[in-house]
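Posting here for the record, re: S-adenosylmethionine.
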Amino acid sequence: MSHNRVDKRQVQRQFSRAAPGYTAAANIQHRMSAQLLALLTPHLPSPPARITDLGCGTGTSLAALRRRFPHAQLNGLDISTQMLKLATQTEPTAHYRRADIEDWHPDTPQDLLFANASIQWCDHCPVIRAAHQALAPHGTFAFSSFGPQTHRELAQAWAATAPADQSTSADPRLTLPTAATYRNALENGGFQLLKNTEQLIRATFPNARALLDSIKKTGATQAAPNRRRGLLGRHRYRQFLDHLDRANPPQLSYQALFFIARKRQGD
Ligand SMILES: C[S@@+](CC[C@H](N)C(=O)[O-])C[C@H]1O[C@@H](n2cnc3c(N)ncnc32)[C@H](O)[C@@H]1O
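Prediction output follows.
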């Protein structure tokens, strides 16, 4: 399984740019956060005393975690300074720090790590390694991410508009691990998997431009070819939009993956 080798400075820039409009645009991510919290609850042995939200964005999940666990020490971690600034306003009771989910260490071992719709921007192996190190014995790691079916409409439109002299056309999307890849990595990384489920969510749009705009507004610019518009040339970009518009209405699939795992005893 190949890993994402994303440019971290680019990720930080794209999310900082999207931060002011993110909360209003991120309906699917908010829905996933609520679902992750609901899935997690029956698997917690006791209310967690220390919680860190990995890739906390504008702090929506932290506010929900505060409501659910009023006495917990809450921490938010994100790579984007603008996201952190907004999260501080959303949930002022949490402690915030700018760090990379792939490479961070808490001051004190954590009881719960929560990561909603953030680790698809990372290489999952270092994320799982860092999570294992950060957790207290029997600590819980709850995360959601996106599977490879996500934005498949973009890959289809991209391939369909490839120039005739190109037999293949590189997929414009992020490389997204399958649920099986995550399960193996958790198992090999010292975790016991308690729950894994998934859901295919379909969003519809009035037209292709609105569809691409929705991706941009949630910061996922790198996943959308509109960033490469200048490189593409007008003709292929127009064809790409036309292909997306042919679906009536244009739609985007999101393969939401959910995992609840416990740090194994003795690991
Ligand atoms: C799609 S947003 C999700 C935000 C929030 N968890 C939510 O559910 O609304 C992804 C977040 O992950 C952050 N992020 C991406 N890569 C990261 C990394 N390597 N380390 C820390 N944060 C990262 C982004 O800055 C962004 O705030």
